[in-house]
Design a protein that fits this description.
184 residues, mainly alpha, 3-stranded mixed β-sheet, 9 helices, globular
Length: 184
């Protein structure tokens, strides 16, 4: 668990690096780069900066190379803008969370519409008729996870929270811990 000092330094560096990377760097490889997260080490000497970009013309390797090239400038700017005892070493990593989130969202959209497209054979590196995973071969996959949230699979009618609470005996017996502390 990060200390309060780590959290404060992390927030400060996130703000400053977001401004610098977003508007002050003139490298064409870094036009659409966004800082997604900053993680500070316990001794405050190393900082992991996670970035993503929206430019499809530039690869993530080129983005990281451009950021490594701009690291001395960024460190000088941090030294002048922030009141830190020592300027931390900046280590840049590519954050592919936005791409993975978009992929999961598209899969969930496909499942909700009832059509699941088979994976592209060239991407998966296997025969298009073979199941992509063991889960594909054995059952419905992620749809089974959400099956108990629906009344009928054909209608896809969602159970609202009130009906779910009425069916559950445990919900009526459990009181939040904060209420118990107030009563004491």
């Amino acid at each position: 668990m990060p200390t309060i000092r780590q959290q404060r330094v992390s927030e400060l560096l996130f703000e400053e690096l977001s401004i610098m990377v977003g508007s002050e760097l003139t490298d064409p490889r870094l036009l659409l780069v966004q800082v997604t997260s900053v993680v500070v080490s316990r001794d405050l000497r190393n900082v992991k900066v996670y970035v993503s970009h929206d430019n499809e013309e530039v690869t993530k390797e080129q983005v990281l190379k451009g950021l490594r090239h701009a690291t001395p400038f960024l460190r000088r700017q941090i030294a002048t803008r922030c009141t830190l005892r020592s300027v931390p070493e900046l280590l840049f990593y590519y954050d592919d969370t936005p791409e993975r989130a978009a992929r999961v969202e598209s899969l969930l959209r496909q499942i909700s519409t009832g059509r699941v497209e088979p994976p592209d054979a060239s991407v998966a590196g296997q025969d298009a008729t073979a199941p992509a995973t063991a889960q594909d071969a054995t059952g419905p996959g992620i749809a089974a996870v959400f099956a108990d949230d629906f009344i009928d699979g054909d209608d896809m009618e969602y159970i609202d929270d009130e009906e779910r609470d009425d069916n559950s005996d445990e919900a009526a017996d459990v009181t939040p811990p904060a209420q118990n502390r107030n009563e004491i």
